């Protein structure tokens, strides 16, 4: 069974409540105005893409990374952006979403086309694209993942300690209040709070206000509720395919039969996961809330996003040297000024064995 057929079979297992492959893609509205934050995020994404490209091309002897993803320096509000965006939407429906990078064996690399084929119409490079061994969608995140993991572990430990201190205090000092028949259920509730249940524990704060003791215990239940909410927040950084992108990535695979991957670039490490693994993970409901979550991303127009624990993937680069950065002034129409940050340099130190494994490269000499 070839790659596309394996992916097609996997799509049949995806719950339609998550991704309905039978429904047409929802039309996208053309953005009307860019923000400083949007341009900074775009610059960060461009830097991450360049970081991965350089890491591969400066390390590999047999393979070459080529820029392929549809992109442009124009932003919403500038002349020509509407045409670019409409052409981009048409291409999504025609061939699917181009991954940011293509990886070619050097023997298949076309020197006349060079290292950037992003501006070439797809009809001119269809046969060439089919020779790629991989397409890579590069995502960036403004985090140090190791620092984040340390902070989340400390947060969990802190609020777990607070939760059990409150529980023990209530049972030790307010048992007489809770032994009233109308309140005794809270004794049972608190006794079910354990290390095993705290991640799913929930209750309604009573709202007692009749006397001083009831107010005190009610306030303790409020603090317990806050502590438990902190413990139950998602505690991992994620690789984030948008639900709407799943369909257009599948369309691209259908068109070219080239394996597709997501690389998530942090400012200290890079993780990668195959599209095949993504579909396998999200087709299993037992992974929901454990390895991935489905959320509306407020930072991305409230679009529904699948957030997969980055460490479910492969560590592609175990170390990243941070880039330099500088502020840029951009003048828009009507004299509106935007100030954003650009990123330059930096180095990703590839874990060659992990990269070979995720890309399915059998050659010992990458």
Features:
366 residues; 2 domains; 11 helices; 3-stranded antiparallel beta sheet; 7-stranded mixed beta sheet
Number of domains: 2
Q: Assign a percent range to the helix content.
A: 25-40%
Radius of gyration equals 25 Å
Number of β-strand runs: 12
SSE class: alpha+beta
Strand order within the widest beta sheet: 1-2-3-5-6-9-12
Could you say which overall geometry the principal axes of the C-alpha atoms support? elongated
Number of helices: 11
Multimeric organization? single chain
Distance between the termini: 26 Å
Q: Uncertain spans, ≥5 residues at pLDDT below 50?
A: none
Mean pLDDT: 90
Largest sheet, in brief, is:
7 strands, mixed
Order of helices and strands: HHEHEHEHHHHEHEEHEEEEEEH
Strand content: 15-25%
Give an account of the 3D structure.
The chain is of the alpha+beta class and about 375 residues long. The chain folds into 2 domains: about 5-145 and about 235-360, no CATH class; about 145-230. It contains 11 helices and 12 strands. The chain has helices at about 5-10, 35-60, 80-95, 120-130, 145-175, 175-180, 185-190, 210-230, 245-255, 275-280, 350-360; strands at about 65, 100-105, 135-140, 240, 260-265, 270-275, 290-295, 305-310, 315-320, 325-330, 335-345, 345-350. A 7-stranded mixed beta sheet has the order 1-2-3-5-6-9-12. It has a 3-stranded antiparallel beta sheet with strand order 4-8-7, with helices on one face. A two-stranded antiparallel sheet has the order 10-11. The mean pLDDT is about 90.
């Amino acid at each position: 069974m070839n790659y596309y057929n394996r992916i097609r079979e996997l799509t049949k297992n995806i719950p339609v409540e998550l991704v309905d492959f039978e429904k047409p893609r929802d039309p996208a509205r053309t953005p009307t105005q860019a923000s400083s934050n949007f341009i900074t995020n775009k610059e960060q994404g461009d830097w991450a893409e360049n970081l991965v490209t350089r890491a591969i091309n400066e390390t590999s002897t047999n393979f070459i990374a080529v820029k392929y993803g549809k992109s442009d320096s124009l932003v919403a509000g500038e002349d020509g952006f509407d045409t670019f965006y409409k052409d981009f939407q048409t291409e999504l429906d025609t061939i699917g979403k181009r991954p940011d990078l293509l990886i070619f064996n050097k023997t298949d690399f076309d020197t006349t086309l060079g290292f950037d084929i992003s501006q070439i119409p797809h009809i001119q490079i269809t046969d060439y694209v089919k020779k790629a061994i991989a397409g890579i969608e590069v995502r960036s995140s403004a985090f140090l993942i190791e620092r984040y993991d340390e902070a989340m572990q400390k947060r969990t430990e802190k609020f777990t300690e607070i939760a059990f201190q409150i529980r023990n205090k209530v049972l030790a000092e307010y048992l007489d209040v809770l032994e009233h028949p109308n309140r005794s259920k809270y004794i049972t509730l608190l006794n079910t709070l354990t290390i095993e249940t705290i991640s799913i524990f929930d209750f309604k704060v009573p709202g007692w206000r009749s006397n001083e003791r009831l107010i005190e215990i009610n306030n303790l239940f409020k603090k317990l509720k806050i502590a438990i909410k902190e413990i139950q927040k998602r505690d991992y950084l994620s690789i984030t395919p948008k639900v709407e992108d799943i369909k257009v990535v599948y369309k691209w695979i259908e068109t070219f039969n080239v394996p597709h991957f997501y690389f998530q670039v942090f400012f200290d490490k890079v993780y990668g996961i195959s599209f095949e693994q993504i579909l396998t993970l999200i087709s299993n409901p037992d992974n929901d809330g454990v390895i991935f979550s489905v959320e509306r991303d407020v930072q991305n127009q409230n679009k529904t996003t699948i957030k997969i624990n980055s460490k479910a993937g492969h560590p592609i680069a175990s170390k990243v040297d941070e880039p330099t950065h500088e502020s840029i002034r951009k003048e828009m129409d009507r004299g509106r000024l935007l100030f954003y940050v650009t990123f330059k340099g930096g180095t990703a130190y590839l874990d060659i064995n992990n990269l070979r494994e995720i890309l399915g490269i059998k050659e010992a000499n990458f």
